[in-house]
Design brief:
The protein has eight helices and ten strands. The protein is an alpha/beta fold. α4 crosses α5.
Length: about 325
């Protein structure tokens, strides 16, 4: 996240509320539980085999060529308030994202990529311009949007299943249907046999997949990914990128991914938007002319090279201007 003003946040209130329910034994000053793994699932509930419901099938009306944009930013600017006044983060951003489209935001540190995600989610409000979802102005945190951070941010006192089901619990879902839905999302994310585990018992890649499953549980229309795999090793990251493409294909969710990795952006996105400068400006967009599904060892080398060169040229122009 960009430095400066802290955005309003659903997550902080949610964590404080749920923390009151956490077992008091074994909680240190950091709030991290050291209790042994136990399930919070009611054992009298009958097990339900995970199946993919219609709610997560790729809907026809979210095809990338649909008329109304899923996201529209119009001349958006935002500055963080600091003790010394303000620090502009983005300026004059105009960008549209079609329903069902996968777009990547690429840029150097400080170019405003994460700020844009928080503006779309309603955690920040633009100083000028407007942000719209489905032609409705975003006026605060929006339940139609799922956000995955660089860190998993799973609640340590909850099982994996209960972490994924947590947004459904807050939305008032009964236990059985929310557990069925949570298991579907864990299955979609490739997490099997970890329902009762605590987050600290999972690998970094598994925790991030659980975070992705949690974001998908309420079936958001828009999924925002803030460098979700940046802390993982290269092999795990490649594997999860393939899996993310499969999840996007299955759900039809509109996705906006922030990344510093040009190869990752080319592999995943339909289109790459390049942010440059401080404050960040939209320097240009590069369409990715690769068929889907994309397989790492079977990509069109010429198309990959052309797209990567276009992105790097836009980034290099920013580097030249900053000298």
């Amino acid at each position: 996240m960009e430095e400066g003003e802290r955005p309003r946040s659903r997550a902080r209130w949610v964590a404080r509320t749920d923390r009151r329910r956490a077992p008091k034994q074994g909680l240190g000053a950091s709030g991290l539980t050291t209790l042994k793994t136990t399930s919070t699932t009611d054992r009298h509930d009958q097990p339900v085999a995970p199946t993919l419901t219609g709610a997560i099938q790729r809907p026809v009306d979210r095809a990338p060529d649909a008329a109304a944009p899923a996201i529209r930013l119009t001349d958006v600017s935002y500055a963080y308030r600091t003790s010394g006044g303000s620090r502009p983060a983005v300026t004059g951003i105009t960008l549209t994202v079609k329903p069902g489209e996968f777009i990547a935001l690429v840029g150097a540190n400080g170019s405003g990529k994460s700020t844009l995600l928080r503006l779309v989610d309603g955690l920040l409000s633009p100083d000028t311009g407007s942000v719209e979802l489905d032609d409705q102005v975003v006026a605060g945190p929006d339940p139609r949007v799922g956000l995955v951070f660089q860190e998993p941010r799973l609640l340590p006192w909850r099982s994996v299943l209960d972490n994924v089901a947590f947004p459904l619990e807050l939305a008032g879902w009964a236990r059985l249907p929310r557990e069925v839905r949570a298991r579907e999302m864990l299955d979609l994310a490739g997490l099997h046999g970890v329902d009762d585990a605590r987050p600290h018992e999972l690998s970094g890649g598994m925790r991030q997949r659980a975070s992705l499953a949690r974001a998908l549980a309420p079936a958001p229309a828009v999924l925002l990914l803030d460098e979700p795999f940046s802390a993982l090793d290269a092999l795990t990251r490649e594997r999860l990128n393939v899996q993310l493409q499969q999840i996007w294909t299955a759900t039809g969710t509109t996705v906006v991914l922030v990344t510093h990795d040009v190869a990752e952006a080319v592999f995943l996105a339909d289109r790459v938007a390049v942010l440059t400068g401080r404050p960040g400006r939209l320097s240009g967009e590069v369409p990715i002319q690769l068929s889907r599904p994309r397989v790492l060892d079977r990509l069109d080398a010429a198309a990959v090279s052309s797209a990567a060169s276009g992105i790097r040229e836009l980034l290099a122009g920013d580097a030249e201007r900053s000298r």
